[in-house]
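$ fold --in a.seq
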Amino acid sequence: MNNLEGRGFERELQFQASRSGGAGGQNVNKVNTKVELRFQVESSELLSEEEKALVQEKLGNRINSEGYLQVVCQTERSQLQNKELCVQRFYELLRQALTRQKKRKATKPTRSSVRRRLESKKKQSEKKASRGLRGNH
């Protein structure tokens, strides 16, 4: 799990290039610089069943109805740079999805934080109590 790049995901990735908007001048209308990376999660031979479940749970909003995890890059003017950027983002997404969150250990509030909270409550109650005195006379 530590070394995702070493597993050889490149052979399971599909790339599609198309024209993108944005900067690039006349180049924009002629050259396919936008790159879309697609990765079929369910049929991947490189992920275990547990890892597939984690990816589908955590990256569900990026997986389309056909089961493809999609990453689109169109910031650079060259197709090669966009492709490399897509691959980097793909590995970053996988890394985030497969990293386990640490369990939160409940701790008691510190003495000083309890004291600060009680002091602020006391101030607030004094402020509100003083409001009623003027209105009654």
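$ fold --in b.seq
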Amino acid sequence: MSFWEGLWRGREAQYESGSAATNAIELTKRRPSVSLTKQGAATGNLRVNLSWRMRTSDIEGRSKKGGRLLRHPLKMFQPDVVQAHTQGVVNVDLDIGCLYELVDGAKGVVQPLGSFFGDLNGPPFVKLSGDDRFGSPSGETIYVNLDHRESIKRLLVFVYIYDQTPAFDRTHAKVTLYPSNGPRIEIDLDERAPQARSCAVISIENVKGELVVHREVKFVYGFQAELDRLYGWGLQWGRGYKAKVGGK
């Protein structure tokens, strides 16, 4: 963990907002959009959290086996079929990032890769709190300072797998938005895309002064450059690296 990552983890509580909301809005294909402005949540710090946990074939296998035994009790006397360990635990490092475009035309990205952590109180008014390598319950968090919403034209929050085997289908990943007011907003990355390396999760657009959150959930097989082309950002991309943690 770098110095800056540790610093911003330590100060994360300073930017917490909206975490007391007890209800949630789930964005789905049938209900893909919600207006932050209409629910009175277009001010303060919008917290955007990525959380995930791995699923293993062992856990799923035991669950399925238990269900089969309930339906066919005589099968409990049959020996188990020995299987190879090719479907064991997969090590996946999910990262959250955000493409931004400001009203003045400035464009860029906030992400762990390349240590582009952003700035909350100055342009782009988007800040990454840290880089979670291990899928901990707290996950990774991006903050958006909506008190400067008039400077923000559009944001695209995305998730990508850093330098590991593509395995979105082996994770239970979720992006949750905690506005300053009203219910939290949840987007599950539950579509099957086993070979995808990146996913555009949500867009936040300033539409004539109204901030609208829209569910995207579009998986791509490349990385940020492919998301850029898909959404017409027009940035130049190169190979980036992250500081090693624990010998990784």
